[in-house]
Amino acid sequence: MASGEVDRQRAFHDPRDLTPFRGVRVAAPVRGILGRLGRSGPTPRLRRFPAKVERAVHDAVFRTQEPERLVVLARSHPGWSGLCYVMAGLIAYRSHQHAQAAELLQRGLGGENELAAAQFAADYLSSWQQWIEVAEGVTVHVVFSEEAVCLALAHSLREIGHPRDALAALSPLPPSLPASLAACRLAEILGRPADIVAWTDGLTNRDDLAAALLILRARALRTLGRRAEAQDAVREVMRRRRTSLALRHTAMTERALLALGMGRRPSFGKDDDGAARPRAKRTKDAEVKELWLRDFERLTGERPE
To answer: 267 vs 46, which has greater pLDDT?
Structure first.
């Protein structure tokens, strides 16, 4: 990856007054699936006396929502191919067809858009909104934009096992927390903890996206053996009282792993000759469990059995 791409992805501060992001959700897997299947917003009315291709694209995008119809339109109207392939890819993404979505979105980004297609996007697609996953369990609500397309493409490529291509798909995007979270998750998959630490340096827990990034930072620091700094990242996640309960639970698990010393001392609980010490291991496991139970009780007011 070029140094310029790394510089863009490590920047999580978004200086823009207006962004295409409309919300974030940290949810259990079932809730995340239901959110992805939500509506795309109100259907805009077609203007009077539209061109034939404009009417056909409007019908395919807002009424039938079938990727195949948009692919046919892209082939029969080359000047609309970029827009048609992109919308076909976003519709396929919403249906969890990640292989198809990745192929169509990549074609769309490389396709052509004549003036009429660009005007169609300006007139009708401002109402198009979509939930896009940037990391497991973390989705963002995005209006139609380059960021929506690139984030959806990156997620689809990650799902079909192409994390390097997914990371490259994020490189054109301006700095933002969603893009940084997606990039750091891909770096974690690629086994690049040092990059995650560099890209998240100076981050504070100002919202749930930042909290999710801090959890990835804590994992990366634990992998590198920098346990004190990893503990600082976990404490920052727990500091903000309005942090999502799901993220708090993940942070508690990470704190327990740090207490257990996982990822740093693989010989823990063994004698000098390599023989296991079951009693010592059970004692340490009990301490970690008690720590987790106390955190859970403090957050929820209940103590699990």
So the answer is: 46
pLDDT at 177 over 80: yes
Instruction: Give the pLDDT of residue 44.
Output: 76
Looking only at the bridges linking them, the beta strands covering 138-143 and 21-26 are antiparallel
Three-state DSSP class for 145?
coil
Tell me if 176 sits within 8 A of 14, measured CB to CB: yes
Q: What is the CA radius of gyration of the chain?
A: 23
Predicted local confidence at residue 296, as pLDDT: 65
Q: Is pTM, for the whole model, over 0.90?
A: no
User: Of the candidates 109, 121, 115, which has an alpha carbon nearest to the alpha carbon of residue 44?
Assistant: 121
Q: Is 172 exposed, middle or buried (0-12, 13-18, 19+ CB in 10 A)?
A: middle
Query: Is pLDDT larger for residue 234 or for residue 7?
Result: 234
How buried is 262 (Cβ within 10 angstroms: 0-12 exposed, 13-18 middle, 19+ buried)?
middle
Tens digit of each residue's pLDDT (9 = 90 or more) over 282-292: 566 676 667 76
> If we measure between CA atoms, which residue out of 143, 61, 139 comes closest to residue 96?
139
pLDDT of residue 260: 83
On the CB side of 203, CA atoms within 13 Å amount to: 36
Residue type, 89: G
Pure H helices in the chain: 3-10, 29-36, 52-59, 67-76, 81-94, 98-109, 115-124, 146-159, 163-169, 177-189, 193-199, 208-223, 227-239, 245-260, 278-300
226, amino acid identity: R
Tell me how far the alpha carbon of residue 166 is from its chain's centroid: 11
Query: Are 163 and 153 a contacting pair, CB within 8 Å?
Result: no
